[in-house]
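TA notes, week 10

Several of you asked for a full example with nothing omitted. So below is the full record: structure tokens for the whole chain, then the designed sequence directly under it. When grading your own attempts, check the secondary structure regions first.
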């Protein structure tokens, strides 16, 4: 459902065949982000901030700690 929210946020269609692994995680999300220049990636400090933005449909990467970048 996160991928669907990101797709709507950036007005980019999702792939037809989304594959889920054994944990229910969608495979290929980051390949989709890279292939679509309309999708911007936000970099945050920490996993909690990244998770908060992901839950709102933003493509986000969390860097651990202030020295991680």
């Amino acid at each position: 459902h996160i991928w669907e929210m990101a797709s709507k946020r950036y007005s980019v269609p999702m792939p037809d065949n989304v594959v889920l692994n054994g944990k229910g995680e969608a495979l290929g999300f980051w390949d989709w982000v890279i292939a679509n220049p309309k999708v911007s990636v936000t970099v945050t400090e920490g996993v909690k901030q990244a998770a908060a933005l992901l839950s709102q449909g933003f493509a986000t990467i969390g860097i651990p700690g202030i020295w991680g970048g």
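Strands lie at 19-20, 26-27, 41-45, 59-63. Use that as a sanity check on your answer.
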